Amino acid sequence: MRRSFKFLLRPTARQAAALTACLEDHRALYNAALEHRRTAYAKVKVSVRYGEQSADLKHIRADDAGGQGRWSFSSQQATLRRLDKAFRAFFDRLKAGRTPGFPRFKGKRWFDTVEWPKDGDGCRWDSQPEHPTATFVRLQGVGHVRVHQHRAVRGTVKTISVKREGRRWFVVLSCDDVPAEPLPTTGAAAGIDLGVASLVTTSDGEHLDNPRHLAASADRLAAAQRDLARKKRGSRRRRKAAARVAALHGKVRRQRLDGAHKAALRLVRDYDVIAHEDLRIANMTRSASGTIEAPGRNVAQKSGLNRSILDAGWGVFLTILSHKAESAGRELVAVNPAHTSRTCARCGHVAKENRVSQAEFHCQRCAHVAHADVNAAINILRAGLALRDVAQAA
After folding, report:
1. DSSP code string of 357-373
2. Cβ–Cβ under 8 Å, residues 180 and 326
3. How many Cβ atoms from other residues are within 10 Å of residue 271's Cβ?
4. What are phi and psi of 200, to 5 degrees?
5. Per the count of CB atoms within 10 A, which of 145, 261, 300, 349 is most buried?
């Protein structure tokens, strides 16, 4: 299996300045390569490919030895591949008939990662293994940077990335051949219904709380954003205010990740088979504002619901659950979410009127009464087990 490990970096002031310069030079390379492609096509209708731009790197580095020439050649190739990937995604969306967004130039706040594609080529993880208490990563042009390694790295380190989040720096290791850690079988299966009142409701009737981290920090975020709006653009005070807003959002993100990890771990420990809805969260949280010609309805209510869904972090939770289930040897089954909340788990009657309220389900045919989310989770479990049986029989 491939897994990622993320650790906080502890750079010195000089190393932090070098990391900032490295990030800025890679951003400049990305933007220059994008301009090269745009100009070549606009002037002479020629499409520039990654191979041509990679070949030009040798001359770029020779002409700018004190700038671009300081950094790893492989990391610069990775930046050019990142641009190439953006163009391929653009053309794929175009062919699929969707509305594509053309690759954009990256501002300082929109380019925060540099990747080294191979451990040992311009970078080295655990570069001082003889050190008794600390771990270091060596980066070309930066030096040996101390790492706050809070857990063991398993598998073989393949790629190393450095990411800036606010004022902090992180190293992200992508590792292959990470061994699985199967858990003892329990013989139990469950369906789970994701919600806003409770993050997860199981078919056994258990509710896992939704902590609503964004809502809890809403007052502090609003105050910080108001303070940011009052500051003059380009000023030092505005940069400090922006850093405060970013720090608050970063804390909410970390809290959400921590909660998702704990909830997912609890489920994979208790159940061998877990069925969940195959949700299209991007579609569910799309704006209802509409257009000037055809304005949407209940826009404020839909906006609040979208905010609550995104605060719950369903997508993050399902991603983490998938990774933990794979590592633990558990089976995850995604089912079609259509009518799971309107179908009676006792008699199978489907009707909109069955869902009396957010929490109450009352079947109009057989008078079955249950918690609405538990009823939906039971339907999800049955659909998941049916799909599993079909897949095993095939």
Report:
1. SSSEEE-TTT--EEEHH
2. yes
3. 24
4. -135, 135
5. 145
The domain segmentation of the chain, as residue ranges, is 3-176, 189-212+248-393
Q: Is 22 exposed, middle or buried (0-12, 13-18, 19+ CB in 10 A)?
A: buried
CB-based contacts of 133, cutoff 8 Å, min separation 6: none
Evaluate whether the domain defined by 189-212+248-393 bears CATH number 3.30.420: yes
Torsion angle of the four alpha carbons 136, 162, 165, 234, in this order, in degrees rounded to the nearest 10? 120
Residue type, 194: L
The CB density around residue 232, as the number of other CB atoms within 10 Å, is 8
* Distance, CA of 274 to CA of 271 (rounded, Å): 7
Contact 178, 3 (CB under 8 A): yes
Question: Longest C-alpha distance within the chain, in Å?
Answer: 80
- From the list 185, 131, 128, the residue with the least C-alpha distance to 331 is 185
CB atoms inside a 10 Å sphere around CB 314:
22
pLDDT at 328 (0 to 100): 93
- Write the Ramachandran bin of 120: left for phi over 0, alpha for psi from -120 to 50, otherwise beta: left
Alpha carbon separation from 324 to 95, 189, 256 (Å, rounded): 35, 16, 16
Q: What phi-psi label fits residue 200: left (phi over 0), alpha (psi between -120 and 50 degrees) or beta?
A: beta
The confidence score (pLDDT) of residue 167 equals 86
Sign of CA dihedral 336, 341, 347, 352: negative
Identify the H or E element spanning 191. strand 189-194
Structure tokens given for 153: 């790295």
Distance CA 166, CA 334 (A): 36
pLDDT score of 293: 66
Burial of residue 184 (number of CB atoms within 10 Å: 0-12, 13-18, 19+): exposed
| pLDDT 10s digits, 234-284 | 899 999 999 999 999 999 999 999 999 999 999 999 999 999 999 888 888
pLDDT given at position 202: 96
Q: Which pLDDT score is estimated for 292?
A: 63
Residues of the chain with pLDDT under 50: none
